[in-house]
Write a structure and sequence with these properties.
Layout lengths: L7 H5 L1 H30 L7 H30 L7 H28 L12
Helix pairs in contact: 2-3, 2-4, 3-4
């Protein structure tokens, strides 16, 4: 007879996974923003933002929100069962990832806000 594995420890690993995806999205956003700035200087004019910048900014924010939402859901489910979400190494890793995701989420919100701000130095001029 096959033994059924509990999905609780495995679903707790989704919390650090989405936290890492959000952090990776911020890193890719930084690279896309640098490439956009280099292209603007190469063309000596302002260029519209690329889809990569929007995708990485919003994707990173979505991962940050999903991290905390999933942790809240896991904690609620554990509380209904009379347990603590931090039982086991998977749960402890989820608690650490959720705690680190709170300031990361603030940074992700700032990045999305920053995407819609005008250039701080004004228009680019190569004259």
């Amino acid at each position: 007879m096959a033994r059924k594995l509990s999905s609780a420890p495995f679903s707790a690993l989704l919390v650090p996974l989405f936290a890492l995806l959000g952090l990776g999205g911020l890193a890719v956003y930084g690279k896309a923003d640098d490439a956009h700035t280099a292209a603007e200087w190469a063309h000596c004019r302002d260029l519209p933002l690329t889809w990569q910048i929007y995708l990485t900014a919003y994707g990173s924010l979505a991962c940050g929100i999903l991290t905390l939402t999933l942790f809240w859901w896991l904690a609620r489910r554990a509380r209904r069962r009379g347990a603590w979400v931090g039982c086991g190494w998977q749960g402890k890793l989820a608690v650490i990832a959720a705690a680190l995701d709170i300031p990361l989420l603030a940074l992700q919100l700032f990045v999305v806000w920053y995407v819609y701000q005008p250039a701080p130095g004004g228009p680019i001029s190569c004259v």
